[in-house]
Amino acid sequence: MTADQADEVMAGYLLKGGKMLAKSCKVCGYPLFEYKGETQCVICPLAAPGGTLPEPEQAAPARQPEQSPAPVAREPQGRVTEELERTIVHLCERIRSEQRAGECLTLMTAVERGTEALARLGQR
């Protein structure tokens, strides 16, 4: 799995409400996630031959057509925005102490994608 693919998977989990933790996977080094009450590495199962992990899009319940806009619809978006902001700060802290150039580039790419996601959320 490439770093770009890993970033895409992690971004998907963040956008679907997953929480990136300050702990890293002991096998692959990517951040662990809390998703649906479970702490898990979202990269290792996908990197294994034939490995799968339910993507957030598959795990989310099917959306029903909306009859009228709900006034609380912005609430989850606010939580996602806050979590993305905290995650970006955490990634920046990791960049400062990272000695490996490749890992530093991966973290910087994740920061870039996180800021792009924040910008998209702000446009809604």
Short description:
With 124 residues, this protein is mainly alpha-helical.
> What kind of sheet is the major sheet?
3 strands, antiparallel
**H/E series:** HEEEHHHH
Q: Which structural class matches the secondary elements?
A: mainly alpha
Mean pLDDT: 75
Kindly give the count of domains: 1
Q: Please state the CA-atom Rg, rounded to the nearest Å.
A: 15 Å
Q: What percent of the residues sit in helical stretches (DSSP H or I)? A: 40-55%
How are the strands of the biggest sheet laid out side by side? 1-2-3
Number of helices: 5
List the uncertain runs. Answer: 57-66, 68-74
SS elements, strand count: 3
Large-scale geometry: globular
Proportion of beta-strand residues: 5-15%
Q: For the terminal residues, how far apart are their CA atoms? A: 32 Å
